[in-house]
């Protein structure tokens, strides 16, 4: 599909995106922004569209994912924990007592030992993820598929959970 054909098809479908965007956002201005961002992403990634597939579904998927990513970003940014009521009703709760730091040092040492015991193929992606790399970045640096990265991190976490099960219910 040429760029002109792609543009024509997308422009014809664009008005049908607005009601769906409004259903997601419940605000007309946000819906317009969502449609605009969806179209921008569609044009930027038109090479990823496979000719012969349903372009309308492809656009709706882009729009839904854009909305979800934006929603997650906003809720993560604005989430706070208000503990004032807790302290008001439970001022002498034993769960709020600060314990000796030595216990934490033992736990930290046990965690470090458990991580060091992981097989190298699990430890490397796990530690990269732990320090802040995204799955795609890890996959690119290690030159392995992203699914393999996710699987290895999952298996590393599962193994660590098994090795550190003594900490599951506190000390």
TrEMBL record:
Q: What's an example Gene Ontology biological process for this entry?
A: DNA-templated transcription initiation
- Which Pfam families has this protein been placed in? Sigma70_r2, Sigma70_r4_2
CDD domains, per the entry: Sigma70_r4 (cd06171)
Entry GO MF terms: DNA binding; sigma factor activity
Where's the RNA polymerase sigma factor 70 region 4 type domain? 109-160
Q: Which InterPro entries match?
A: RNA_pol_sigma-70-like (IPR039425), RNA_pol_sigma-70_dom (IPR014284), RNA_pol_sigma70_r2 (IPR007627), RNA_pol_sigma70_r4_t2 (IPR013249), RNA_pol_sigma_r2 (IPR013325), RNA_pol_sigma_r3/r4-like (IPR013324), WH-like_DNA-bd_sf (IPR036388)
Ranges for domain RNA polymerase sigma-70 region come to 10-73
Q: Which UniProt keywords apply?
A: Sigma factor, Transcription, Transcription regulation
Q: Which residues form a coiled coil?
A: none
NCBIfam families, from UniProt? Answer: sigma70-ECF
Family according to the record = Belongs to the sigma-70 factor family. ECF subfamily.
Kindly provide the name given to this protein in its UniProt entry: Sigma-70 family RNA polymerase sigma factor
Q: Which organism is it from?
A: Nibribacter ruber
